[in-house]
Structure of Zn(2)-C6 fungal-type domain-containing protein:
Amino acid sequence: MFSTLDHKSFQGMIVLDKTVVSSHESKQKAGAPPNKTKPVKFLGAKSKSVGGCATCRHRKKKCDEVHPSCGFCTRRNIPCSWPPPRPRKKYERKNKIQNIPKSETQSENVSAIQTTSKQDVQRIESFDSLEENSKAFSFMSGILNSTEIDTKTSSLESIVPYDENDADERASVTTSMILSGIKTPDLNMDHDESYKQMVSFSPGLKEGLDKFTKMLSSEKFTYPNSAKESWLADKGSPFEILMDSQASGPGFQYNYFEKFIENCLNPSPSKFYSTNFEVKLAFKHMESSLSDKGFKFLEYYIFYYSNSITICPADSNYFVKTFLPLAYSCEPILYALVSWGCLMYHSQDEARVYLHKATSLMYKTIEAKNSKDKTYSDYQHFKEMCSFFLILIGWEICSGDTNNWYHLLAQCKELICKYGGFQKISEMSSHSNDIKWLISNFQFHDVFASRSLETGTFFLMSEYENVLEEDISYGIDPIQGLARPLNTILGEISNCSSRMKEERKQLEEEFSRSEIDSITYNSKRLAYYEKCETVAAYFESRISSCRPNKRLLALVKEESSIERHLTLFELYSYVCMFYVEIYIRQLPPKSIKLQTLLLRSLELIDILIDTVMMVSLPLPLLIAAQTCYMPSDRDDMRKRLQNVSKGYHIGNFARMVEIIEESWELNPDGSKILDWTEITHNRGWNLYVG
C-alpha cells in the first residue's frame, strides 16, 4: 500500500502471480494500454453464481466457475458449457477507489487463494505517488524494515499525574450484579420507548434527522438472499461420519464438536459446512433443551454474524474460537449466543426470552460455584463469567442500548479486579490466547466508550500492554486488527484529556471566585497552555513512530487484504491526530489543521467504506463528521452514513448519527470547540462508538 511496499523483499510473505506483474511491467514499458481481462483462476464458489456454467445454472446450484470445465461437470464427466459473458456496467468513481474490486465486500474469513490482478498491483503501486501529497505516509517509511512495532507506553506521570480513584468513582454507580447476587438488569426494558420519552428534538435537529431517515426509508434494510439465506443453502457435502453403534458416545460427540470448530475456523473453499444438521450434531447433547428455532439462531451466529463483525482471517475469529467451546459445556453461554443470533436475525423481543433464560441459568451457576469456592482462583469459572459479560455487552450494543452495556462493562471490571487483575489472570491461564482475546475485547469497549473521554478508562493502558504482547500464535485481533497499538494511544489520550479537562475547569473556577488575581491567573494559564503543547508533542511523536507489526501482517494471505489493513492503520493514525488537536490543543472544526486531517481521512474512509473494514469505521466517521462544517461536506457525510447503515446493522450506530446531527446544529459554522461527549452526557447516554 505504501511507498515502502517492495514486492521483491516481501516474497516470503505474499505469493504473487509473477506472470501478472511481469506482463504488467512489460506493457507499461511498451506504452500499451493495460489488459482489462483478469486471469480466471478461482478456488471454490463465489457468493453468487452469476457467471456459472449453464449446467449449474439449470440445477440452480452454486458453481466454482473454474474454466474451461467447472468442478461439478469434471467430477461427473459431463460437457461444461458457458453462456456468453455479460457486458459489465461502468461506474464513475473516484480514482482513489476505482481500482478496488467489488468482490472486496465479501467476507475475508473464507481465505481462498486468489490470483493477484493487475488492478491490485496498480492500486498498491499508486501509493508511491500519493506519498508526496500526504505527510502521514512519511511515518510509515520503515514498515517492512522493522521487525516489530513499538508497543511500550511511556509514562506521562511527570506531566499529568494520574488519579487512581477516577476509575473507582466511575464504577461506584454500579455494584456487582452477578458476583454479589443482586438483581440482574431489566432485560425487558423497552429501549425505544424510554428513548422517545427522554429525548425531545429541536426543529433544526429534527430536520437533519428527517433527511437521514428519508434516505434510509427508500431502501429499508432486509436481508437479501445472498446474505440471510445463503448461509442456510447447500454449500457442500456434510461431514463423512460413520453413523454406527460406536458413533453415539460422549467421546465421539466431543471429537465431532472439535472437528466442527476446526472447519468453522478453516472453511474449505469447496466445502463450507453450514447446514442445520451440522450444528445439531455438534450440540447433540443440548438437543433436548434447545428447539429447532434455537439451533437456527445459533447457526446464524456461527456462520454469518460472527464473520460479519470481524476484520481478521477466519482462523483468528475468537467469536467462534473462544465462545463456542465454552457454549458446549456452559449452558448460559449457549443461550446467550442463541439470543445474540436471534437479535440480529429475527426479533429483539424473542431474543430477550433467550437472554432472560441465559441470565437465570448463569445466576444459578454463580450461586453454586460461590458456595464451593470463594478464593477466586478458578480459571475456567473466570473465563465463563468474563465471556458471558462480554456477550451481554455485545448484545446490548447491537440492540441500540446506551446505558446497560456500560454498567455490564463496570461489572466485568469488578470481576477482573476480584481475580487479581490482568497480570494474575494471564498467569493463571498460562498466558492463553483465550484470555488475551477477552482482555483485548474489554480494552476495545473501554477505549471506545464515550465515558472514557469524560472520566478516563477503567484501567491504565499500560496494564493492557503488559499482557497483550502481539504474537503469531494469537494472530490478528478480530476487532482491532493491526491498529491495536493506535487504539492504546487513543486510550492514553482519553485519560490525559480527562485529567487536563479537570485542571482547566479548576483554574477557571478559581478565577471566577476571585481566589486569584489576573496576574496569577495568566501565569497559571500560560503554564497550562505550555503543558498542553508538551503533551500534544509527546503524543504526536508516539503516533509518528507507531508501525504495524510485520509478523502479523505476514498472516494476511491476500494482497488486497494487506492493503485494507494498512489503510485502516493509517486511518486510525489520523483519528489519533484528531484526538490530539481536539482534546489536547482544543482546536475548533474550522481550523486549518482539522480541515486538512478531515480531507485526508475522507479519502481513506471512501476506500474502506465498501469493504469488510466497514465495521471499524464508526469512530473515524464520528470524528470526521464532527469536523464537517461546510453544507456540501455535511451532505456528503450523510450519504456515507447511509451507506454504512445498510451494511452495519448495530443499534448504537443510529444513536451515533443522532449525535452527529445535533453537533451540526449546535456548531453551524464550525467556529466552536465542541466535544460530542458533552451531547451524550446531556442525554444521559454512555455511547459505544467502536
In short: DSSP finds 31 helices and no strands in the chain. The radius of gyration is 26 Å.
